[in-house]
Each structure stands twice: as C-alpha cells, then as structure tokens.
Specification:
This protein is an alpha+beta fold. The chain has one domain. Helix content is 23%, strand content 35%. The chain contains 3 helices and 7 strands. Strands 1-2-3-4-5-6-7 form a 7-stranded antiparallel beta sheet, with helices on one face. Strand 5 and strand 6 form a beta hairpin. It is globular, with a radius of gyration of 15 Å. The chain starts with a strand and ends with a helix. Belongs to the phospholipid scramblase family. Pfam families: Scramblase. Its main location: membrane.
Length: 127
C-alpha cells in the first residue's frame, strides 16, 4: 500500500497542519505536523482494523508514544449498518485546551483514516 498524506487548510489556501502516514509492516501509524511541518503528535492504529462487533481505536499519542492524549474511534454501528450500508460512525477525543489548529488537523486525520482503512469501492472489491 502507498503511504498517504493530507494537508489541512483554514481558510482555503492557508495550511494549518499535516497528517502523514508512516511506514510500518503491520500497524497503521501517522504523524500529525503543525503548519511548519514540525512533528507534534502520533496516531497509532490497531494491528487488525477489522474487529467485528466492537470499536476500532486509533490512539493519539505524544511524539515518544508514551502517553495517550486522545483517540479516533470507528464505532461499531450494528450488524445491519456495517454489512448493508456504507455509513460509518466515528468518534474523536482530544483535550479541550488543545490548539484549535491541532484539533482541526486531527479531524482531518479522521477523514484520512476512514478513506484509507474503511472505504471500499466496488472496483476495489473486484481486485
């Protein structure tokens, strides 16, 4: 799989943060960067992103990966919704006093995680 990256802008044309996927053989890892591309936080996903009947959590951690500061969760929405619709429910948790630019960048990371790990087109299913 190719590594992906995302630029978050506010207002349009003004970058406020970046999300880049880090290479790892079996664990999803991302780095959150500020507008100057300084690394600020890490996002570490689970070994397996296909847990049935439970939430899938991506922890937002400090750069040294020792403390958890938040979480992005794909929330289990029931068998019917999971099997027969494309709808996904996500929850995002971060400290209230976090810089608003970092909050927006984490929300961008949520969209990127959804796109990379949970969205499947009909073309992808045939390959």
């Amino acid at each position: 799989m190719c590594r992906v990256a995302l630029e978050v802008q506010s207002p349009p044309g003004n970058p406020i943060g970046y999300v880049k996927q880090n290479w790892h053989p079996y664990i999803p890892k991302f780095t959150i960067q500020d507008e100057k591309r300084n690394s600020v936080l890490k996002i570490i996903g689970p070994f397996c992103d296909c847990k049935c009947f439970s939430d899938v959590n991506f922890e937002i951690k400090s750069l040294d990966e020792t403390s958890v500061v938040g979480r992005i969760s794909k929330q289990w929405s029931g068998y019917g919704n999971e099997m027969f619709t494309d709808a996904d429910n996500f929850g995002v948790q971060f400290p209230m006093d976090m810089d608003v630019k970092m909050k927006a960048t984490i929300l961008g990371a949520c969209f990127l995680i959804d796109f990379v790990f949970f969205e499947h087109s009909k073309q992808q299913d045939h390959h």
